[in-house]
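Bumping my old thread because nobody answered last time. Still need a sequence for this structure:
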C-alpha cells in the first residue's frame, strides 16, 4: 500500500529524478523524469505534485494510487448503510435474506 506522505516527501526531495513516480508504480514516467532531469522541468513538475499530494485527501490518494478500496469504511458509514438497508427492508424492497446478506457484507 502506497502512502501519501511518503510520496510527497519523495516528490519534494528526489522529485526531479522521478523517485515518487517509481514509488507510485509509474515507472515509465519515472524514466522520463530521469532522462530529462537536467532540464529542471521534472523538478518543477515534482514540486507541483508535492503540493498536490499535501492537499489531497487520503481517500482521493487511495482511489488514485491504491486501487480505491484500501481503507475500511468508517463505523458511521457502515451504520448509515445498515440504516438505509433497514428502510429498504421495511418498505418491502429487500427480503429478510437479502437484508441479512448485505448487512453481513457491510460488517466484514
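Sorry it took so long. Here it is:
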Amino acid at each position: 500500500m502506497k502512502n501519501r506522505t511518503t510520496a510527497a516527501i519523495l516528490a519534494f526531495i528526489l522529485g526531479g529524478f522521478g523517485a515518487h513516480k517509481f514509488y507510485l508504480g509509474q515507472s515509465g514516467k519515472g524514466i522520463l523524469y530521469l532522462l530529462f532531469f537536467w532540464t529542471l522541468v521534472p523538478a518543477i513538475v515534482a514540486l507541483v505534485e508535492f503540493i498536490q499530494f499535501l492537499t489531497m485527501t487520503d481517500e482521493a490518494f487511495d482511489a488514485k494510487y491504491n486501487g480505491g478500496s484500501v481503507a475500511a469504511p468508517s463505523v458511521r458509514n457502515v451504520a448509515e448503510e445498515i440504516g438505509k438497508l433497514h428502510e429498504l427492508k421495511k418498505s418491502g424492497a429487500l427480503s429478510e435474506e437479502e437484508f441479512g446478506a448485505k448487512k453481513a457484507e457491510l460488517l466484514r
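The chain has two domains: 4-65, 75-107. Let me know if any region looks off to you.
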